[in-house]
Design brief:
The complex is a heterodimer of chains A (about 70) and B (about 1200). In chain A, about 10% of the residues lie in helices and about 15% in strands. With about 70 residues, chain A is an alpha+beta fold. Chain A has a single domain, classed as Rubrerythrin, domain 2. Chain A has a three-stranded antiparallel sheet with strand order 2-1-3, with no helix packed on it. In chain A, a hairpin with a 5-residue loop joins β1 and β2. Chain A is flat. The N and C termini of chain A lie far apart (about 45 Å). The relative contact order of chain A is 0.23. By secondary structure, chain B is of the alpha+beta class. Among the domains of chain B are: about 120 residues, RNA polymerase Rpb2, domain 2 (Dna-directed Rna Polymerase Ii 140kd Polypeptide, Chain: B, domain 3), CATH 3.90.1110; about 160 residues, Hypothetical Protein Ta0175, Chain: A, domain 2 (Alpha-Beta Complex), CATH 3.90.1070; about 190 residues, Beta Barrel (Dna-directed Rna Polymerase Ii 140kd Polypeptide, Chain: B, Domain 6), CATH 2.40.270; about 110 residues, RNA polymerase II, Rpb2 subunit, wall domain (OB fold (Dihydrolipoamide Acetyltransferase, E2P), Beta Barrel); about 80 residues, DCoH-like, CATH 3.90.1800.10. In chain B, about 25% of the residues lie in helices and about 20% in strands. The radius of gyration of chain B is 37 Å and the shape is globular. The chains are: A alpha+beta (about 70), B alpha+beta (about 1200). The interface between A and B is large, with 33 and 38 residues. β3 of chain A pairs antiparallel with β41 of chain B, so a sheet runs across the interface. Chain A: It comes from Clohesyomyces aquaticus. Chain A: Belongs to the archaeal Rpo12/eukaryotic RPC10 RNA polymerase subunit family. Chain A: It is found in: Nucleus.
Chain lengths: ~70, ~1200
């Protein structure tokens, strides 16, 4: 979908000011197109590829041990 | 669960051996097969369709399964797979012979395909959007200004678009990609813009503007404005939507909200009732403009009319005179007719004429006018009231408003009041004629569309009023700087409509000033405990009667509920009988146009009732015809009229939902086209033969005919409760005799969707079925196909749900077999250990290990940052300090301060590393300092982080984080299980498999159930389920336990015999403990068991010491606050009676709110630190221990100016 669909939300601008350039970016997955979105704190939450606004956090890459019972 | 039974849960295997045929596919007798007119089918043609022959589909195209598919799916190929999942045409192949007596039930899936289980809601909403909205606009078409007479705004059209996001509202020609699921995830409202076309005056010219937004309307899912309409399974899956989801609800602020069906007394119908010895006929008139109630009552033998706008009751004769019935004789004839008994009763009323000296219409109108209450104060000082005109105004437009007064023709209204008076007279003569308020025919159901239409009209009127006010404000100014364009003021108020409707839906408070309506709890959160609970909620009807009323009438099962409302599904306790559920085939009518019906009434030879005199109307053999409660015509050939009307309806000349019934007591025929009547389809029987024959059923199966074709051809028709009451309905084809007018489609449709899950309900004691209806909604199972995509506050899922072995037709129709909630457990009905008393169950440990009763619990935790006045807000931040990073509570956190997906959380672990700004009122722009306020995991049992969703709030743009935590739970001691027969029990013991009894084939049961559960509960259906299940397992087929039908016990016994089992269903078992043969045969076989949501893990609680309430310093209450266990009043009584005073002292004070107080012996007041403030001395101060609550009481009393003195004395007195 076109990104023009989402424009001119004044409230988004407010949060934009708070972008923290020192913080490291974290990668999320887009809920629509599944592409990787790297976000810093305070950035608008939105897929750069498709404009979808639902993102999911990626699974941890550390080991997880299950107790299967 | 023994490993052997695994195949039973899968799809039926093809029977390879010479296993006996399932009883229902027994070869039919030959005479049923021979059908001269039925085209013979090429045998090869039917083969590919063996998976799917749902009605309405051509057999050549196996198709996917959508309940409400209208347009042919554009992309058929990929859906072929789902055809494989289709049942074997509900147990029949295309080539099987058709037997009308048994196969007419095929109409039911055809009906559900067109109407669906929640079609009432969707139909009602569609009607609102398509028709009602336009009517509301039409009624409020013009807006004029009080100041500028030339100004006029006119609405020319109104429509509702497709759902959008709010941010896309301004864009034109934009196709929004919003889906219901996105709304659920992002806490948005699934709503579409309402647009209007207007023409208005600017300066001197008329300006036309189109597509002006006036607000947003929440859209009902699966309605014709919903994105999901006409989508196939694949498209649904792409939208993350479940094709089995019934729809019919709204998504408001991310929550699924249902407008429950409301039950009410019908409008515009006369009800005769007797209250405190006064016989009265009342009618609630309701039109677009006004709603009022009028009574005609009989007091001490005299008749009066009562209405809110009349200051006192007015003798009925005066009213009739005022309405232009000139002579006393005519009045007498209109009310009493030629009947001398009625005449004698009524003549006393004329005495009032002589007493008051009222003989002419003029005098009567003056009399009425004097008693009209003034509604609004006349403007501009004193005005002489014109009583005469006021009376005319009141009579024509206030009293009984639904009967129209055309010009000055009051005749119809006079007749209406005369009819009411006559009914009162008749009811006095014969008390049997008093109406039954609980009769379902006197009820109307109010649906989502009507509720919304009330709400919208109110807000639309407010919108227009606000607009008028704001332009008046401008127009009032004499010198305006620029040219005035009213349009600038038009869009200002659009938020009021959106917000008003949204708020009403979100809170459930319907507050309408116009009708003085203040209703709370109209909407409810859709329960997603299980698929069936969601479905059950959509068919629920709530009653408007207050719950406190002691009378049993409204709660009792009404005979007229038959086939319309479920006989079993009602809650126990407070709301018992007030909350009802729709039966499977019920449809609720929407309004249909009166005018064509009115025309047809006259075409059928009836004559206008205004042309009749009183004696003509009440003459022998003359029947008056009422249309929606208004007298319209009269005829002396009622039977012919009735038949003619029905014939026209069957040929489709009148709406199929118009109903007609005859009332021989009142010599009246009632035609109804109004909305909210409950009705259901029945097969038409003519000349002792069912009109639905094998030929049509064959066409239905082939897909050349759909349910609507049956309607149009007059083979099937809808009957509402009143008309059903007039019909002779045969249950089975063999019962048809010369009087029969209709044939039941299937008797099991008297039950609803929830009660339909019970196998063999007709063999159970009735309360058991009711219990199961309540419990079926608590069963854990699959919820929807999109269950893993949902982020709900609380979600229970079963890990390995199984489709029940013993099904019912309803299970297949509601698709419960696709989203089941339970497992087929092998049950041994025997006593085992002592841990199975009082309904406790013994589980097989090995079965539990293999996944029996295993479920997952998902909990949502959301984070939405709090905003502060200075623009700062809470943030989430990763842990920076290395030392902190290694701390155990931080182990799950990621870089962004949110727990990592897949991590296990234990009590005390941080999952949101939240930080709150230090100074809330600081200057914005300055560097904020934050203080750590992490959110930690509280539960004693660990959870896994299943999913973390990050999104933005739609309106504020603030980030929203939703985290889903998952627990997988295996059954443990105390978890609740239930079969489908209201037989619940908790797990009493989980026994090792080696200790369980086993059969000669090595099968051990999954569950051992105590046989004491049977005798008192009389759930024979459960035994039959076991028998049929066992037969089905060995036969490789699903067996049926459909109500009033299903697999016969005899046939099941036969199958068991053929597989070398006892026909009783009893098996020889060996004890696993001693290795000896059990001395008895054990009733042994599969029963479908549901795991209920009540689990020990959520309830287990204990406390030694812990938190205390601040005010009283007593231990807190409840598990969630780690509260204490209360020694209550009754326990206290026991201890007092026993005399355990020291124990009492310990429980009530020492272990609770012990407190040391300094009390002054001299003044009896409390001091502190050994000092009495009153006496100003240390003398007489004694320290004593008392409950803090007692000390608090003393202080609270003193704050209310009540002095409490504490008197002290020695426990052991000094002599």
């Amino acid at each position: 979908m076109s990104a023009q669909g989402y424009s001119g939300n004044p409230a988004v601008q407010v949060t934009n000011q708070l972008v923290d350039n020192n913080s490291r970016s974290v990668e999320y997955l887009c809920g629509d197109c599944d592409s990787v979105v790297a976000l810093k704190r305070g950035e608008p939450i939105r897929c750069r590829n498709c404009g979808h606004r639902v993102l999911y956090k990626q699974r941890t890459n550390r080991m997880v041990q299950f107790e299967a019972r | 669960m023994p490993p052997r039974k695994a195949p039973a849960s899968r799809a039926p295997r093809p029977v390879v051996t010479k296993a006996p045929e399932a009883p229902k596919s027994k070869p039919q007798p030959d005479e049923d097969v021979v059908m001269a007119d039925a085209p013979s089918e090429p045998p090869g043609k039917s083969v590919p369709a063996d998976g799917d022959v749902e009605m309405g589909d051509t057999p050549e195209q196996p198709h996917k399964q959508t309940r409400r598919r209208r347009a042919p799916a554009p992309n058929r190929g990929p859906d072929e797979f789902s055809a494989l999942l289709e049942p074997f045409y509900y147990g029949k192949s295309l080539t099987d012979p058709i037997n009308t007596a048994q196969d007419k039930w095929n109409l039911l899936p055809a009906f559900l395909k067109v109407k669906g289980l929640v079609k009432q809601h969707v139909d009602s909403f569609n009607y609102f959007v398509d028709v009602e909205l336009k009517k509301i606009m039409e009624a409020n078409k013009y807006i004029k200004s009080d100041i500028d007479a030339k100004f006029l705004l006119e609405y020319t059209d109104i429509r509702v678009g497709w759902p959008t996001r709010t941010e896309e509202d301004e864009l034109n020609n934009h196709k929004s990609s919003v889906t219901p699921h996105e709304c659920r995830l992002r806490d948005m409202t699934y709503a579409a813009p309402i647009t209007v076309d207007i023409i208005y005056t600017r300066e001197t010219s008329r300006i036309k503007r189109t597509n002006i937004r006036i607000g947003r309307l929440p859209i009902m899912l699966r309605s014709n404005r919903c994105k999901l309409m006409g989508k196939n399974d694949r498209e649904m899956a792409n939208m993350n939507e479940c094709p089995l989801d019934p729809g019919g609800y709204f998504i408001v602020r991310g929550q699924e909200k249902v407008i429950l069906v409301q039950e009410q007394m019908s409008k515009n119908r006369v009800i005769v009732e007797s209250a405190k010895g006064i016989m009265q006929a009342s009618v609630t008139s309701s039109t677009q403009e006004r709603k009022s109630k009028t009574y005609v009552l009989s007091k001490k033998g005299l008749m009066f009319l009562r209405h809110n706008t009349l200051s006192e009751e007015i003798p009925i004769v005066f009213i009739l005179k005022a309405l232009g019935v000139p002579s006393d004789r005519e009045i007498l004839m209109m009310v009493a007719g030629e009947d001398s008994a009625y005449q004698d009763m009524f003549t006393v009323n004329f005495e009032a004429c002589g007493r008051e000296g009222i003989h002419t219409q003029q005098q009567a109108l003056e009399y009425v006018g004097h008693r009209v209450r003034i509604m609004k104060k006349p403007q501009g000082g004193f005005q002489r009231r014109n009583y005469y005109l006021e009376a005319i105004e009141c009579l024509s437009s206030v009293i009984i408003t639904h009967v129209p007064v055309v010009g000055t023709n009051f005749r119809q209204k006079a007749q209406y009041i005369a009819f009411m008076a006559r009914r009162v007279l008749m009811a006095i003569q014969d008390p049997k004629l008093i109406d039954d308020r609980d009769y379902v025919g006197n009820k109307r159901l109010e649906l989502a569309g009507q509720m919304l239409s009330l709400l919208f009209e109110d807000h639309f009127k407010k919108f227009n009023y606000d607009f008028k006010m704001s332009i008046d404000k401008v127009l009032r100014r004499q010198h305006r700087a620029s040219g005035f364009d009213a349009f600038a003021h038009f869009s200002v108020h659009q938020n009021h409509i959106s917000m008003g409707i949204e708020r009403a839906l979100a809170t459930g408070n319907w507050n309408l000033k116009r009708f003085k309506m203040e209703r709370a709890g109209v909407t409810h959160l859709l329960s997603r405990l299980s698929y069936i609970s969601a479905l059950g909620m959509m068919t629920r009807i709530s009653s408007q009667f207050e719950k406190t009323r002691k009378v049993s009438g409204p709660r009792a099962l009404q005979p007229s509920q038959f086939g319309m409302l479920c006989t079993s599904d009602t809650p126990e306790g407070e709301a018992c009988g007030l909350v009802k559920n729709l039966a499977l085939m019920t449809h609720i009518t929407t309004e249909t146009d009166e005018d064509p019906v009115r025309r047809i009434v006259f075409d059928l030879g009836a004559e206008d009732i205004c042309a009749f005199t009183g004696e003509e109307i009440h003459a022998e053999g003359v029947y008056s015809i009422f249309l929606n409660g208004t007298p319209l015509a009269a005829t002396d050939m009622p039977k012919q009229f009735l038949n003619g009307f029905r014939r026209l309806r069957r040929t489709g000349r009148i709406s199929e939902f118009a109903s007609i019934h005859i009332n021989h007591h009142y010599n009246a025929m009632h035609i109804a086209t109004d909305e909210g009547r409950i009705c259901r389809p029945l097969i038409v029987v003519e000349n002792g033969r069912s009109k639905v024959t094998a030929r049509y059923l064959k066409a239905l199966r082939k897909g050349t005919m759909a349910f609507d074709d049956f309607l149009h051809r007059g083979l099937v028709e809808y009957l509402d409760v009143n008309e059903e009451n007039d019909s002779n309905i045969a249950t089975y084809e063999r019962d048809i005799n010369e009087h029969t007018s209709h044939l039941e489609i299937e008797p099991f449709t008297i039950l609803g969707a929830v009660a339909g899950l019970i196998p063999y309900p007709h063999h159970n004691q009735s309360p058991r079925n009711t219990y199961q209806c309540a419990m079926g909604k608590q069963a854990i199972g699959a919820i929807a196909y999109n269950q893993f995509k949902r982020i709900d506050t609380l979600l229970y899922l079963m890990v390995y749900p199984q489709s029940p072995l013993v099904r019912t037709r309803t299970i297949e129709l509601t698709k419960y077999d696709k989203l089941p909630a339970g497992q087929n457990a092998v049950v041994a009905v025997m006593s085992y250990s002592g841990y199975d008393i009082e309904d406790a169950l013994v589980l097989n440990r090995a079965s539990v290990d293999r996944g029996f009763g295993r479920c997952q619990v998902f909990k949502k935790i959301a984070f939405a940052p709090k905003m502060y006045a200075n623009g700062s807000m809470e943030i989430l931040n990763g842990v920076i300090d290395d030392k902190d990073k290694n701390e155990k509570k931080n182990h799950a956190l990621g870089e962004d301060g949110i727990a990592q997906v897949g991590k296990e959380l234990y009590a005390g672990d941080i999952y949101f590393n939240k930080q709150t700004p230090e100074v809330a009122g600081g200057v914005s722009g300055a560097r904020q300092s934050f203080k750590a306020t992490p959110q930690t995991y509280k539960l004693p049992d660990p959870s896994y982080v299943d999913k973390v969703m990050v999104t933005e709030n739609e309106s504020t743009g603030a980030p929203v984080v939703k985290m889903l935590l998952r627990q997988t739970r295996r059954p443990e001691l105390g978890d609740k299980f239930s079969s489908r027969h209201g037989q619940k029990g908790v797990v009493g013991l989980i026994s090792p498999q080696e200790d369980m009894p086993f059969s000669d084939k090595g099968i051990t049961p999954d569950i051992i159930m105590n046989p004491h559960g049977f005798p008192s509960r009389m759930t024979v259906g459960k035994m039959m389920e076991l028998l049929s299940g066992k037969a089905g397992v060995h036969d490789g087929s699903y067996q049926y336990g459909t109500a009033f039908g299903g697999s016969k016990v005899e046939d099941m016994a036969e199958i068991l015999l053929q597989h070398n089992y006892s026909y009783h269903g009893k098996d020889y078992l060996t004890s696993g403990i001693t290795g000896e043969a059990l001395q008895f045969y054990v009733f042994f076989g599969p029963i479908y068991y549901q795991k209920l949501k009540h689990m020990v893990q959520d309830k287990m609680h204990s406390r030694a010491r812990g938190p205390r309430a601040i005010l009283t310093r007593q231990p807190t209450e409840g598990r969630s606050r780690d509260g204490g266990l209360r020694l209550g009043e009754m326990e206290r009584d026991c201890l007092i009676a026993y005399g355990a005073s020291q124990l009492l002292l310990e429980r009530l004070m020492l272990s609770s709110d012990q407190h040391q107080v300094d009390v002054c012996d001299n003044c009896g007041q409390m001091g502190y630190q050994g000092w009495c403030k009153m006496c100003e001395s240390h003398e007489g101060i004694h320290t004593l221990t008392m409950p803090y609550a007692a000390k608090l009481l003393v202080q609270e009393l003193s704050s209310m100016n009540i002095k409490v003195e504490i008197g002290l004395e020695d426990e052991f007195k000094r002599e």
